[in-house]
């Protein structure tokens, strides 16, 4: 009997794993995905903050516990697993291994020296499962760790450059992984300019009121159909009137094979069903949000920063809705991506319109209508070609687990990459552009005024979209092959922590104040116990629960580490 390999993508929004036969065929057996990340918080900065607060050892235990849940969900015999290949950003991979992360948190050599931090080498390596305490695999199982390129640009970013083959082509191109931590790389004249921004999870459906990840039941696309006009004829039908157009929203919902099927068609001001679809919706994912923005602009349902309906909400099927708060969250995420694109172009000394090809990675980059993403500013406006390439991180882990030589090939590419990394957190250019993006999305700054500021700063300016680019969809799903046993979903990846705080009044103000409904309170005799779902918690930077406590006895850190 042949051995098994596990490919594992430790993403910022969730984990994805696949079991693969390690024979000549390399057949994928099954896929398991989590609906969230096990850490509190919504982005990589929150995750880093949590790990620093609770310590590397505790953070490692949380990661390993979640990985074990993925392994347990894959219906295969663990004693057959001989290799596990993992991919992700440097923070996730470092915490999985239980190694130093403070060099990723603090900038400046002097600061690190003052803390006594010796940055670890994040080269490709092979270790045994026994070296990761608590990992539920045979002790002799090989764990294949891919290399980072530099600092925050890790194996996941390297994977998207390799899988798109952009390094082999003579073109000015940009690749973006549209996730919670949006990695991007621009190649100009054989030199790669990289960056990474904590865009937040809105582009993956999180921090949206009725948002969910790309899972069965998620609204993944929306088309506005004006009265008397159907389908793509809705494009370009605006007049000079400020009132919203009368019409309907046609939705598309992911089925259990992660393929979009027609959902209900509804009137956006009420949610009344105009035409019944094939599937019910349970939420809206990031691609649906992007589509809703695109169509909302065209239909004048959205006038940034407002929603142009009587109740200031856009109504979707099955009592779902999109609010002005959701608009703000989506705008901040899109703004971070566009600010990153402008910053990298400035680093490379080119204009945005010089970019010829845009590669879109990740679930959001796969399921989104590429032209709608172009409409809202997620893709540079004048590209000639858009290629949607799926989850490159999981795909790369799969290639490595099937052939270990691919691990060392990744190291060779990382060593020889002519690369310039821009730390967006320290970049004055990124700061200026992102402030303009916030002004645009949150205050309705006119685009003309935005352009004037870019010109004043001597930065690449935005241009209006030209002729529609060619769109090449290389995969139908972000995970093209779910395996012969299909997809398994893990909705409850978060560890539950319970504690009784001394002096608790039992008024549940902390529970009511939590924006993510991560807390529950239960009375046991004269004691009130608080239970926290770590994966739902907004993170240690939030602490609204602590501030709501009248007696000041609530201690979030004690709850997280109990």
Q: What's the structural blueprint in terms of helices and strands?
A:
Blueprint: E1 4-10, E2 15-21, E3 28-34, H1 44-54, H2 56-73, E4 81-88, H3 90-97, H4 102-105, H5 109-115, E5 125-128, E6 142-145, H6 155-164, E7 173-177, E8 182-188, E9 191-197, E10 218-226, E11 247-254, E12 260-266, E13 273-275, E14 283-284, H7 286-298, E15 302-303, E16 306-307, E17 313-315, E18 321-323, H8 324-348, E19 357-361, H9 362-367, H10 370-376, E20 385-390, H11 392-402, H12 405-416, E21 419-421, H13 428-443, H14 447-457, E22 470-473, E23 487-490, E24 496-500, H15 509-513, E25 519-524, E26 527-533, H16 544-548, H17 556-561
Parallel strand pairs: 1-4, 3-23, 4-6, 7-19, 9-21, 10-14, 19-20, 20-22
Antiparallel strand pairs: 1-2, 2-3, 5-6, 7-8, 8-9, 10-11, 11-12, 12-13, 15-16, 17-18, 24-26, 25-26
Structural commentary:
It is a single chain. With 562 residues, the protein is an alpha/beta fold. It has four domains: 4-151 and 396-406 and 482-490, Domain of unknown function (DUF4445) (Nucleotidyltransferase, domain 5, 2-Layer Sandwich); 157-201 and 328-392 and 411-473, no CATH class; 212-319, no CATH class; 496-561, Alpha-Beta Plaits, CATH 3.30.70. The protein is 31% helix and 24% strand. It is built from 17 helices and 26 strands. The protein has a seven-stranded mixed beta sheet, sandwiched between helices. A hairpin with a 6-residue loop joins strand 12 and strand 13 (273-275). Helix 2 (56-73) packs across helix 3 (90-97). The protein is globular, with a radius of gyration of 23 Å. The relative contact order is 0.15. Residues 230-240 have low confidence and may be disordered.
């Amino acid at each position: 009997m042949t051995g098994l390999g596990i490919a594992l993508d430790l993403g910022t929004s969730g984990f994805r794993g696949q079991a693969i036969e390690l024979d000549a065929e390399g057949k994928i057996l099954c896929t398991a995905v989590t609906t969230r990340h096990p850490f509190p918080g919504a982005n990589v900065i929150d995750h880093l903050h949590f790990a620093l607060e609770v310590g590397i050892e505790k953070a490692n235990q949380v990661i390993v516990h979640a990985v074990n849940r993925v392994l347990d969900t894959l219906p295969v015999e663990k004693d057959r697993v001989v290799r596990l290949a993992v991919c992700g950003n440097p923070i996730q991979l470092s915490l999985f291994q239980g190694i130093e992360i403070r060099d990723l948190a603090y900038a400046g050599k002097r600061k690190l020296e003052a803390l006594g931090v010796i940055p670890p080498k994040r080269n490709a390596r092979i270790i045994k499962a026994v070296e990761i305490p608590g990992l539920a695999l045979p002790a002799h199982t090989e764990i294949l760790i891919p290399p980072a390129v530099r600092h925050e640009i890790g194996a996941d970013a390297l994977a998207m450059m390799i899988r798109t083959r952009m390094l082999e082509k003579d073109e000015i191109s940009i690749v973006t992984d549209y996730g919670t931590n949006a990695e991007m790389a621009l190649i100009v004249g054989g030199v790669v300019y990289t960056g990474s921004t904590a865009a937040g999870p809105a582009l993956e459906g999180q921090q949206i009121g009725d948002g969910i990840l790309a899972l069965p039941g998620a609204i993944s696309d929306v088309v506005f159909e004006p009265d008397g006009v159907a389908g793509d004829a809705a494009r370009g039908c605006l007049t000079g009137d400020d009132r919203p157009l009368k019409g309907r929203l046609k939705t598309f919902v992911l089925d259990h094979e992660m393929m979009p099927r027609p959902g209900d068609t509804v009137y956006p001001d009420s949610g009344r069903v105009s035409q019944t679809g094939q599937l019910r919706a349970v939420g809206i994912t990031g691609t649906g949000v992007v589509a809703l923005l695109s169509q909302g602009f065209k239909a004048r349902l959205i006038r940034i920063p407002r929603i142009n309906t009587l109740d200031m909400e856009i109504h979707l099927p099955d009592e779902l809705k999109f609010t002005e708060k959701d608009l703000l969250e989506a705008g901040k995420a899109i703004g971070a991506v566009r600010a990153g694109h402008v910053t990298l172009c400035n680093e490379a000394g080119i204009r945005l319109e010089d970019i010829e090809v845009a590669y879109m990675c990740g679930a959001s980059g796969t399921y989104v209508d590429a032209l709608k993403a172009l409409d809202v500013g997620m893709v540079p406006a004048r590209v000639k070609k858009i290629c949607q390439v799926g989850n490159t991180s999981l795909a790369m882990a799969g290639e490595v687990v099937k052939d270990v030589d691919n691990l060392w090939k990744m190291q060779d590419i990382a060593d020889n990459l002519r690369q310039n990394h821009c730390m967006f957190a320290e970049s004055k250019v990124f700061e200026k552009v992102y402030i303009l993006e916030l002004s645009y999305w949150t205050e309705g700054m006119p685009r003309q005024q935005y352009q004037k500021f870019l010109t004043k700063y001597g930065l690449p300016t935005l241009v209006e979209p030209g002729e529609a680019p060619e769109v090449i969809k290389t995969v139908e799903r972000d995970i093209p092959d779910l395996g012969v046993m299909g997809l398994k979903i893990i909705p409850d990846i978060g560890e539950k922590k319970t504690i009784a705080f001394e002096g608790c009044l039992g008024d549940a103000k902390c529970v009511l104040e939590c924006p993510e409904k991560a807390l529950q309170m239960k009375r046991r005799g004269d004691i009130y116990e608080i239970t926290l779902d770590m994966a739902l918690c907004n993170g240690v930077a939030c602490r609204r629960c602590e501030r709501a406590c009248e007696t000041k006895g609530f201690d979030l850190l004690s709850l997280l580490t109990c």
